[in-house]
Amino acid sequence: MVEIYNELSVRYGQRNWWPVIQGDECLYLPEFQERKRTPEEIFEIITGAILTQNTAWPNVVKAIIRLKQAGIFSPADFETIPVSELAELIRPAGYFNQKAKKLKIIACFIRNDLRGDILSLEKFPLIEARKKLLDLWGIGPETADSILLYGYGFPVFVVDAYTKRVFSRLGFFPEKSDYEEVRQLFEKGLPKDVRLYREYHALIVEFAKEFCRKKTPCDGCFLQNVLFNKCIFA
DNA sequence: CGCCAGGTTGTTG
DNA sequence: CAACAACATGGC
Questions:
Q1: Which residue is closest, via its CA, to the C1' of C7?
Q2: By CB neighbour count within 10 A (0-12 exposed, 13-18 middle, 19+ buried), where does A227 fall?
């Protein structure tokens, strides 16, 4: 588990997830390794985490840019604007009707449950904070964990389709294992370190895009060798 | 043109 | 409870 991380880390270096959108640019800034996110940045991460559900990131960037250019980018804005107009703004991200509804729901959650203080979620124990998010319609385990890890700095490992594909192909578990099982596996096999969790997930995505596509599986995969070497030198 | 992308929910057997 | 459909745009 750690061996794979080290290998990916050497290959790809620091990923500095989660990115921020400034102007028309998507930036991965090292400073986020050091400091906490501002409430505005957390809200952007929440928004991005919802918009990126089963969607390519560049489409999400387009949607976020449109929202910002329209001056619609706060929980209050999301609650005020008619859902049809919100949907139109986020159209490039796909599933725009569903996602507009989800953004409305999270904005409502921030006002009601969090009393308008987005940072207050961080004061709850991880289990409770996670449950609050999972209870919302439209927030599943990956979205919740992305928000908790990258937005608030809770130590949860984010599992996505890439994570399952890469590690099932490497033989760690069956492709369609339960989300929680996979998460536990990583969290038990790694030091409980937020920066490690953040980087590892980002590295898995990077690697999967290059070497672990659905088609042409395992072509040029250098991770198989890592496991093989570990095996014979163990 | 077909496949896929940093999922989640609702329905069905 | 597993399997499947529905949701939708943009890039290759």
A1: A95
A2: middle
Q: Is the pLDDT of residue A204 over 90?
A: yes
CA distances from A76 to A71, A111, A229 (A): 11, 8, 54
Cα angle for residues A180, A55, A14 (degrees, 5° grid): 70
Q: Evaluate the omega torsion of the peptide bond into residue A18 and state whether it is cis, within 30 degrees of 0.
A: yes
Q: In whole angstroms, give the CA distance from residue A52 to residue A94.
A: 9
Residues listed for chain A: 234
Q: pLDDT of A58-67, one tens digit each?
A: 999 999 999 9
Helix (H, G, I), strand (E, B) or coil at A19: coil
Q: Give nearest nucleotide to A45 (CA–C1').
A: B6
- Asked whether the predicted pLDDT for residue A219 surpasses 60, the reply is yes
Burial class (CB in 10 A: 0-12, 13-18, 19+), A146: buried
Answer whether any strand C atom is within 7 A of the Cβ of A59: yes
Q: What is the DSSP letter of A191?
A: -
Separation between Cα atoms, residue A17 and residue A108, nearest integer Å: 26
CB count within 10 Å of CB A11 equals: 14
Whole-number distance in Å between A21 CA and C10 C1': 19
Nucleotide nearest to A205 (CA to C1'): B6
pTM: 0.97
Q: Which residues on adjacent β-strands are paired with residue A21?
A: A26
CA of A90 to C1' of C9 (A): 10
